[in-house]
Amino acid sequence: MDLRVAVGEGVHLRVRRHDGEREPSFLLVHGLASNALLWDEVAAALAEAGHGSYAVDLRGHGESDLPDTGYDAGTAAADLAAVATALELHDVVVAGQSWGGNVVVRLAAEHPALVKALALVDGGWIDLSSQFDTWEECAKALRPPDLDGLRVDQMRGFLRRAHPDWSPAAVEATVANLRVRPDGTLERRLPIPRHMEIVRDMWDDPPRRFYPALAMPVLLVPALPDDQERAARSRARVEAAARALADATIREYPGGDHDLHAQHPRELAADLLRLA
What we know:
With 276 residues, the protein is an alpha/beta fold.
């Protein structure tokens, strides 16, 4: 079931609700330029185990509103807190993927009564200023490409070739990161200037400063690349984050995609359920 929840004057977010009778519920947060549909298969597995979930389209993403301001982790975390208040959620397991991991770190630090446990899915430890020498270098590397008339059938074909182990539902959920025009070409839901505002905020304000406020259990779920040198660097960053947290556990996915919730939804759901 899709809900629309007001988080501020004139700003509504889409929330995909999957019902369940058992506590706790789960709050699921996507990454940059993604959308809540990527969590659907995880949510289905959580529902099979009896737990409800709420997957949120952050502002400018998916079917949520696209206001002129608020593209920073602080506002995104406040939006999630507003969703939780509106839906009377408390003591939930919160999972955030990629940039969404950075966002939920801040949510948990500023609203600890809301969060029973935290899952950081290949994010939540992203510090762009430690990976690039200058903002200009970072911006050049992370600016999304122009679509220039890319057609939806071309995007589906690319995704199927790049991710042969993804389900058709995961492919379609990823296509939904973009809007399909009547002529079959694609356009961004999140415009590039807004995208880059988020990237700049990630550069300016990495999540590590919020770690001391996190007393709840935190599960760090890195997707480690096949390349051993890159995997070692990734593992070092994750282990450093874990050492800075009061109650941290690491669950590695060797060879995993950045979108672990698309590639391994049932396995990831099982990991989340261990936090329940």
